[in-house]
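Sequence in, structure out. First:
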Amino acid sequence: MTDFWFASIVLVVLGMVSILWPLWRRHQHATVDRTALNVALYEERIRELDAQVVAGEISPDQRDATLEEASRLLLSDTDQPERLQRRRGAPWVLVGAAGVLPAIVAVLYLAWGNPDGLALSRDMAEGGEPASLEEMITRMERITQVQPESGEAWYMLGRAYLSDQRPAEAARAFDESLERLGDRPEVLAQLGQARFFASGNQLDSAAVAALDKALELDPNEPTALGLLGIAAFESGDYPGAISFWERLLVGMAPQSAGAQAIQGGIARARERMGDSGEPQVQEPVGNAVIRVRLELADGIADEVGPEAVVFIFARDAQGPPMPLIARRLQVSDLPADIVLSSSDAMLPDVKITEGQTLQLNARLSPTGDVMQGTHEGRIDQVTVGDGQQATLVIDQAVP
């Protein structure tokens, strides 16, 4: 910022000089050049009168009378600039304007300028691309502070929050984006996804409304189709899940990993339906399980009551923010010994494997909406199928 302020000072000084320089030049011409000219003309007049006396054209008395009149004119012309200057008074007004110019410029810049935006623009130009997710979030937060009316900036901030497993904050950012951009299908779908994650992988009414609106605007919106298919599968509506996922497959490359996962989910939904349309029994759990004892820290249960909801879920710490497996309990169920397995998967084709390392999270919500969660706990690493029971305590207040 030093070079900016230096350049500003230089420009202000140039502005002051542009005001004062003509005044100084006019004063010099008025007090020096004009006086010298009048004196030279007076001396020339004396020589002419002397020559006329010698030639006999005028008498000495006439010469003296004419010379006296010329003297009065000289004195009058010499004093005239000063009298005109006093009468106009304009130079003093301009001098005063030049003096207050720096203060006016400073006040106007503080009122209309954007120093934070200038600093951010310079940091972005000099710093290059963010080197980490944390740096990206910090940058997007600064952008939304400097340009709070930028719906695109809020959208990018929401995506960054989702990648950082902060779905509640992501949902708020997507809400801000919608306020500025209006109903856009991709933003609505991301809002539904954020609320889905924030509520412990459950679709609340607000999430469903957002996803439905996204499909109304774009019937092929992939995020909305995928999430509604998951919700239908989890609720036992296997025909509905198949319908959503088949629509999703239309816009995907047939041999892509995503398409294969969706095809696996469709096959699993059809297996659950069976020939008679009734769900089939899930396969045995086996050794690919996570054993965990879930507890509440002392005093928390008394604050929220026995009907408060607890969500426990596991995700790949190095992968996408979406949980792989999840389960919903109540405070009255705790403490509880829980066995998590592929039967708790969020996507039909997702399976956890023995030896896989996952991150384990739990969140407490008095309302059943994790966006309104009050406390949480986390274990950064648990190993699937190691036979050991991890202890997860919900003891941290949600920021």
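Second:
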Amino acid sequence: MSLLNKNILLLIPNLGMGGAQRVFHDHSVELAHHFIVKEAVFNLDGGNLYPSGNELISLDVSGGGSPLDKVRNFGRRISRLRSLKQRLATDVCISHLEGADYVNLLSKGSEKVILCIHGSKLHDGNIRGPIGWLRKKVLMPGLYNRADRIITVSRDINPELIDGFGVKREKIQTINNFFEVEQIAQKAQEPLTPQEQAVYDAAPVLVTSGRLTIQKNQAPLLDSFAALIKQQPVKLVFVGDGELRDELTSHARALGLRVYEAWSEALLTPAYDVYFMGMQQNPFKYIRPASLFVFPSAWEGFPMALGEAMICGVPAVTTDCPTGPREILAPDSATPATGIRRAERAAYGVLMPMLNQPATLASDQQVWTTTLAQLLNDPAERQRLGKLANQRMQDFSREKIFRQWVAVINDVLNS
């Protein structure tokens, strides 16, 4: 069977800011070397932050509104996608993110359907309330087995789908996200501005990258940092933006920390403790010169920001959250039945206690403070971990990952 003439439709709710959207773009670009690829979105309300060069079709169905509006829009999305699949003579439709998965499955005709699952479902703090119950108890258990194949980005998502939602084991396969290793390494060499360099020269820098959201759980990191800065000079740099911007800056100030905000008119100087740099076209130039990359997420999929920091050769200190960090930093270890309560020096970085358990939060934050202090005072260990981090990320090159994707699509087409 010739693959080059096969029509692949990639579906995602939107192409606004997000890790899944970046992965969607990368898949679109790479799969176009092997298939005829088109993209579809529910709407373009968030713009197209990740243009791939492939044709993009909007179903032009908005979100939001009353519960009745949402039901109607859901039906419109299914109807319009079904028509689009027929018009494009789609052979395989690959959906990214849960909302797109439902629409993909419910519009299924003769084409094959593949779902790409980007994150934990059992631990996702956004899945709550009556709609969350509907998603966990009805939609996922009732619909996911209709897929021809389900691709998870992390091995630890698989038992969630099998045990939590009754998905058939034989339908599931893990293909990790890939990273543009050489491109990221090259961008990381871009020099800081003189003002930025002065900040990095003034004290060791902890850096974290990602959206300012409940998933990334940055608030407790500020508490640990506030304790750390009482022990030694250190600065904390946030690269990214999000809906918790005001809450986090207020929390930092309440802890007595001096806060710089890139969106304000303040001058960038070494006089601050915490730096919110906002969205950056090249986040890697802020990561590479840092002493440590800190990653306090409450849950993940296969975290792009963590992998990118490791490519930059920065030692990673991350929560052992579901899912992804352990698979990257300690690939030969099993996921523990209960959360770790102390620092774990893994093969390629440091795994840390979660920072979202109220009963142990104070002691967990102390573990973070102590471990960060130890690493900041051990340059030889930081250098060792940085080299290992970069070495590990060679396992996730574009070529290795997409050989797996092409094989899966070929297998599905022939089944």
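Remark: The first helix runs from residue 19 to 31.
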